[in-house]
Design a protein that fits this description.
homodimer, four-stranded antiparallel β-sheet
């Protein structure tokens, strides 16, 4: 039986068969199908291989919550690297921190960057900043073949299927640890606490083996499957659950209060890391 | 253009066209279409007029988060009333508090209670408890034609369309205020902070006019449209954001830490009540 639960949902601004979506661009790049769609509620949407990556309506929740907790945790973030994130949303947020001297954006598919510069100028504008260096390469290979000293590492990947799978491997995390300064902070999007619980558990366990501190925080995101989205943050020195310094970053959603409330309570964090969480 | 964003989403446990749903019961009651479906990930689902009301996979998030913050806020909750909630999930949670002497369940559609007793015995079992009194009537009419002194009022309604619309009116809230004890606490589900923001603002403003304290707290819920679900809580005496007493209630998710983190930060709460929140 096929069922559309939302066909009668007169109280919601969208219908879930997306019959009101208009495609304004599509191409098949070397790596994936890239589409730009227009939706009456969500605005413009970036879709890769059929999966929504961002919408202009709600991308700020995701990008602010991925970037700022890590940036605020570091006492003086000068060198940042973003792996994935060709849309430029993370670059935009990183550049809100005046301490930043350099941002390396490692995006395998250069066409994502170019398409976003054309269709999402408000999101990708920061990519033209002179502090930003673009590397068109797989993130794991880039770290493997160099030697770096980053303050903050941000992984803004697609789902862990296909090429993005290695961006969730223990090997990748250990390369990140090796290329992070002593007061460095690492954060990655890590899928849904409800839909992808076994995956979140694995990420948390891998990080616990490599870093002095690692925690999970969450944000409800309507456009991603499972909605209760997790971010996994790890630190070599400073507790990322506390906000120790102030930044006036002109944020739409993020604040120190949002930051502190977003972390899982200890009892759930402990159950998650021990693999006992089950729902 | 009709688009199924999730047809290629190999990393999620569900497909959003619900092609793997099996209907095990349906009827047209006096008020609505009642369906019971079975889903490989969500388990058994109650669907009213085509909208998911609960799934056995995740109903505990909703019911625990609707009931316990209000119950814990009251210093000695003896008399509770639940308006809506014919599935029995709220009754089950209220009865976890040993102080309770009486629970009135006001459910307009008696067939919802009966269907849930047959198909969701784990959720509705509490309805047979001798402290529970069932009233088959519209909630607003029930309060209008009586005089009560409740400690806790819980509104577990469907979306504010059709008959449930009056359960979000200022008139209804003022009847609740009149029938609440001096240390009484009121809570209602109040839709999605993302999809239904104008509605949440209106509920919060109505409550602010009637109660000494009123706040919004949230929980990510995958089965409801908009997902970032709100609960609006109001109190005559005690600040519901704090947890002042301990209850060992055998909860699957709720805890004092979950309670305190669920409330919106002051800046967002204030923007919400003033109607300035906009995303």
């Amino acid at each position: 039986m096929t069922y559309n639960f939302f066909e009668k949902d007169q109280f919601s601004p969208i219908n879930y068969n997306y019959s009101d979506v208009v495609e304004i661009y599509n191409e098949k790049s070397q790596f994936q199908k890239i589409q730009v769609l227009e939706h009456p509620f969500f605005g413009r949407m970036l879709v890769l291989d059929g999966i929504i990556q961002l919408t202009t309506k709600d991308e700020f929740f995701y990008h602010e919550m991925l970037v700022h907790p890590a940036m605020i945790t570091h006492p003086h973030p000068r060198e940042a690297i973003i792996i994935g994130g060709g849309d430029g949303g993370c670059v935009r947020e990183v550049l809100k921190h005046p301490e930043i001297d350099s941002v390396t954006l490692v995006e395998m598919d250069i066409r994502v960057i170019e398409v976003c510069q054309e269709f999402f100028p408000m999101i990708s504008a920061g990519i033209n900043d002179q502090r930003v260096k673009i590397v068109s390469q797989d993130g794991l290979e880039y770290l493997e073949n160099g030697s770096f000293a980053f303050d903050v590492v941000i992984v803004d990947s697609t789902d862990p299927i296909g090429p993005a799978k290695r961006l969730f491997s223990e090997r990748f995390y250990s390369l990140i640890e090796k290329n992070l300064n002593i007061d460095g902070v690492f954060v990655t999007q890590s899928e849904s606490l409800f839909f992808h619980l076994p995956h979140v558990i694995k990420v948390q366990q891998n990080l616990k083996n490599l870093f002095k501190m690692s925690y999970c925080y969450t944000q409800a995101l309507s456009t991603y499957a499972g909605n209760w989205w997790t971010f996994s943050i790890a630190s070599k020195l400073i507790d990322p659950r506390k906000v120790l310094r102030q930044v006036d970053g002109n944020f739409r959603y993020y604040s120190p209060e949002v930051h502190m409330r977003a972390f899982l309570p200890d009892s759930i964090q402990n159950a998650l890391v021990s693999g006992k969480l089950d729902w």
